[in-house]
User: Fold these one by one.
Assistant:
Number 1:
Amino acid sequence: MRVPVLAYHAVNIAGNDYAGNDLVAFAADLRLIDDLGLRIVPLHWVVEQLTGAAERDLDRCLALTCDDGSAFDFHDLVHPAHGPQRSLYHCMLDFVAERGADAQPDLHLTSFVIASPEARERMDQVCLAGLGWMGDEWWRDAAESGLIAIENHSWDHNHPCLDTPGVDGMPRGSFLDVDNHVRAEAEIAAATRFIEARIAPRPTRIFCYPFSHVPEYVHREYLPQFGHEHGMTAAMGDGAMPVTTGADRWNLPRYICGWHWKSTEALRGILAGS
């Protein structure tokens, strides 16, 4: 198994060109992936293959993910500075309409969402445009679409914009401070419960580390030993390499748009060995 996992942030909108807009990049990348003869598969297939829960042919496959769970994942919206934006979901529908359902029959995107309504509201007001882009009303519709899975990106991202300390007096701004059981339960297990209540009966089974910060306690102890509490079967970091047989299931690598690649040519280079 050698499966690249690509990550996008739909709120990364600094213009309407590839380098400045993850939505534009995503739409272009779908076509590049198809042109290269690669097959898009759900991320949970990759995890199931890795853990031995299923056996599939994943030769020349890759998986798509996005982080933070903004409404741009699912809804077309108007950006106040850069105009109408096509959502990740509708970019996939556009691709299917253009190339046919048989082009990528397993087309799928995993959206890692932040659970806390208070944290999302604060992020929307302080970090975005204050236009309600961080709601959760779309989660169930997205999960029921068959094209998107809703997964766990923590309770509140321990984001620096939050104006109160985290649980157990945790300072804000780094997920590396999730260094004990109390903090890990509040950030991961509590998020699982909240998300699953909104997308039931679908489960959430994959965690994504905020900021790509991988705390030693969470990685080595909490995730491997407390599955009965948090329900996760794997966790995503960055790593900038494909997921291969024998990869660390609690810190699986991804390539991040705008960081590991900023153009179709750069992505082509990443995928050349897949």
Number 2:
Amino acid sequence: MSEPERTAAADELDGCVGEILRRIEAAMRDSPLAADREAWSECLRQAGFVLADCARGLRLGQVAADEEQAAQATRLAMLCGRQKATRLWAEMLSVTIGTLSERHGDRPGAARRLGLVTAMLHRCVAGRTVTGVPTEYVALHRVREIHAADRGRLAREIHDWLGNHISLAVRHLELYEIYQGTGSPRASHEVAQARTVLGEVLAEARRLVADLRPQPPVTDLATAIGAFVRAAYPPSVTVRVEVAGPADLMPDSTRQELFLVIREALRNTLSHSRANSVVVLVNTIPGQVHAVVEDHGVGFDVRAAAAGGRGYGLVSMRERTELLGGTFTLTSAPGHGTRLEIRVPLLERNYVDDSSDADRGHPHR
């Protein structure tokens, strides 16, 4: 392709950049990516950079990936994850082709210039992808951030919840001493209240200890989930755990993260659902693992919880699932229980290639 044709293609692209970005924003307005303001702002910014790189590459006849582009690609992957970034680039390509076709499609040689832009855009995106930090390292970095946030949350719960409840129990005991000295019948009531509060503290302490205990590698999901249930749940709650399918289809890293998602779901159920029974189902088949955690407790308004900033556990579970390339679906409503459904693809490579001994389904309590 001649230099004049490449320059003409670059000029046409430059004249459409603003409209292309507006169309991308409109097309993805309702996507999960757009809900994260920081990530979405970075997406639009980098889409503009890529379009500028494409126009410059057309004029020069080549694309040269530099350190700044690599840093941008790494930042986007860390903010959005591989799947969301890929969707952004796909949407950008589609919108760019559509916009150029509408604006310049009736001009002589339009198809040839459009082909030039398409090829150069692919090269610009690919150049950023291969020069950035590998996806595995980005995912590992994000997983570590999530783990650190989990530890911070547990520290806050220990300080706030346990501290407040222990103070409340002490207050009841102080009132007991006062009433006992006056012979008031309220003395026995205050002792009973202190006993109730300390029982709640003990149950919460057991749960927090179970969360904080160092986790060995998960080689059997049924065993790991059952151990957490026995450590955290009171005997009054029945938890049925069924794990089916060959474990050698699931990489160790996938199994570990899936366990953490299920554990967080069980922790939320224990803390908030007031359910008498919980069901955990995990089924592994070639190409996919499907997990469900369901209770028939009090339920809650999912949107209100997220809007009120009370949904960190939900965000953590969703992020872990998406880092595995999976989908996370939460269904709940006040008075109608809660159902969490996770589907994770099992690829030839999912962070690392590994396998372990076969899991078997085992019910617990």
Number 3:
Amino acid sequence: MQAALASLRALAALLLAASLLAPPVRAQTGDPLVEARDVKQWLWRIHEAAGRRNFQGTFVVSAGGSVASSRIVHFSEGANQFERIEALDGYKRQVYRHNDLVHSFWPQSRVALIETRQATSQFPALLSSGAEHIVQFYDVRPVGEGRVAGHDANVLLLRPRDGYRFGYRLWAEKQSGLLLRAEVFDERDMVLEASAFSEVLIGVKPQPELVIQAMKRIEGYRIQRPSLQEVDLAREGWTFRQLPPGFRHVSSVKRTMAADALTQRPTAVREGGSSLPPTVLQAIYSDGLTYVSVFIEAYDAALHRREILMAMGATQTLVQRHGDWWLTVIGDVPVATLRAFAGALDQRR
């Protein structure tokens, strides 16, 4: 279930702090419907609320005929962020985060993954760059009001201006701006993935000690600490001839994997019991709203047996051989975008 629902994995493992540099939001008066001239500020409100608001609730994702849910608690104290996420379906798993430090626990296998993750915006956060960049590639407009999990919400429609990205329909709680529900749809307006709080309390009392204390309970767990190093993609010998419109480089890292890069499950094991700690180069790109990750690793015929193109909800995955290398491109974008990334990748000799 977790391997299939990539967006839920992102929610459960990567709900990270929103930007603290966003401009202030004007008080909303008069007509409760968000006016078109205010949509940029509403995008920032959604983004800020995910990091600055204290909330807890049950979050449900439906994609590709599968449904999965997580229990989420988020606290904010000054510049510090604290989160506790528990998967309610499939493998038992708890994730705790204090700023960039993330502890993931699998109680059944007694494995704990401890890592530092660079902050990237995932639901219910929103932007990785300014709203001005978003409106260059999405037509953003208010489409009415709604009600989600007992909360009144304003509804925004983000329709892509080209074929390199999907569209979004967002329900933002009126008072706080917290994103309560999101739908991702394709060029035919078919909903590929829906995610929403089934119940949520906003403005709960912060209790960061609940997260801090849980992160210390590692006795009896087999600890995995993936090695992570920031790198320059060009110095590693790789470049892109041309990126799809609107996408910008976010980060590049080299990691010795103690967990699978796509599923975040514990390391696979070869027959005979030896572990597989592959070194993987990962480059992340964003159009300000969604992300594409490019994974590059040395080709191994024993491991890399089949090229695939897979879709699960909004998440598309392209896996193919690239000479002596094995390439995986994954993101909540159309297949054409993944192919554009893969086709533009060059190895510098």
